[in-house]
Design a protein that fits this description.
Elements: H1 2-11, H2 28-41, H3 43-73, H4 78-106, H5 108-121, H6 124-128, H7 133-164, H8 170-198, H9 201-211, H10 213-220
Length: 273
């Protein structure tokens, strides 16, 4: 059913697609290099990518052991585990729906910063939990809040990235972000397995929770934390220049721009974002 809804929403997109001449004589490695330089040269995209990559790494480490910890250490039943996952999914939907109004009211930067600050706190019930129904409700509520923050921040940061990126660089910008973000997950999963065997599952979860502070620090140290309005779109680049020239932000619309996390949890797979 979800695929049918997605297909229906896609069909309803009314934005016309501009035709572009095919690039001739261009090599893949050249375009990859252009994408990397483009993201690195725009401090908003660079900050977003760093936040995304570090968040993805921490969550992948946590998610690798999350299901094991609940089902084995906390003796949660399969039914209760499914209910907890369902509660988390509702949180993700709520966060995505609330993101536009929260960003408009609080500003994209402060809203994303708050979401990053709340995320490590939502791990506390899991770390303190012991077997029992009360703790199962606590973990479900914490997961609802965690995924709501993830969806709200993720929706906002994707909007910012798309707004500040020139049309001709959208795919390469997204490819760079996805490559760096997804590329951290196998490493984190391998590290989680090693640490879980070496120091235990709960201490590894504590370490992963501490790692969730890294993206918060990155965004806090960036001027993007103060962004109160969505940045303006870059000027349309000419076909010959858009592949190599990063967008030059037009004059600041408020405090220095902000960017955030591509936070995506995959609790159902027990593996990372």
């Amino acid at each position: 059913m979800s695929y049918l809804v997605s297909a229906w929403c896609t069909v309803r997109i009314q934005a016309p697609e501009s035709s572009r001449p095919a690039a001739e004589g261009r090599r893949l490695h050249t375009e990859i290099g252009e994408g990397l330089r483009y993201v690195n040269d725009d401090h908003r995209l660079r900050t977003l990518t760093l936040v995304n990559a570090t968040t993805s790494f921490a969550l992948a480490l946590l998610n690798t052991l999350w299901a094991l910890y609940l089902l084995r250490s906390l003796a949660m039943s399969a039914t209760a585990f499914g209910v907890v996952l369902g509660i988390g999914a509702l949180g993700a939907a709520a966060g995505a729906l609330a993101a536009p109004s929260l960003a408009a009211r609080q500003g994209p930067g402060p809203m994303m910063l708050a979401a990053l600050a709340i995320t490590p706190l939502t791990q506390i019930p899991l770390l303190l939990a012991s077997p029992g129904l009360v703790w199962q409700f606590a973990i479900g509520g914490a997961l609802f809040l965690q995924l709501a923050c993830a969806a709200a921040a993720g929706t906002t940061q994707r909007t910012i990235r798309q707004v500040v990126t020139a049309d001709g660089m959208q795919a390469r910008m997204q490819a760079v972000s996805t490559w760096l973000t997804s590329g951290t997950r196998p490493v984190a999963a391998l590290l989680a397995g090693g640490l879980g065997t070496w120091i235990g599952v709960r201490p590894t979860l504590v370490a992963g929770t501490c790692l969730l502070l890294v993206p918060l620090i990155i965004l806090y140290r960036s001027p993007l934390r103060s962004l109160l309005d969505m940045p303006s779109s870059p000027a349309v680049a000419s076909p010959s220049a858009e592949a190599v020239t990063p967008p030059t932000p037009s004059g600041p619309t408020g405090p220095p721009p902000a960017v955030t996390v591509d936070v995506r949890h995959d609790r159902s797979l027990g593996g990372g974002l």
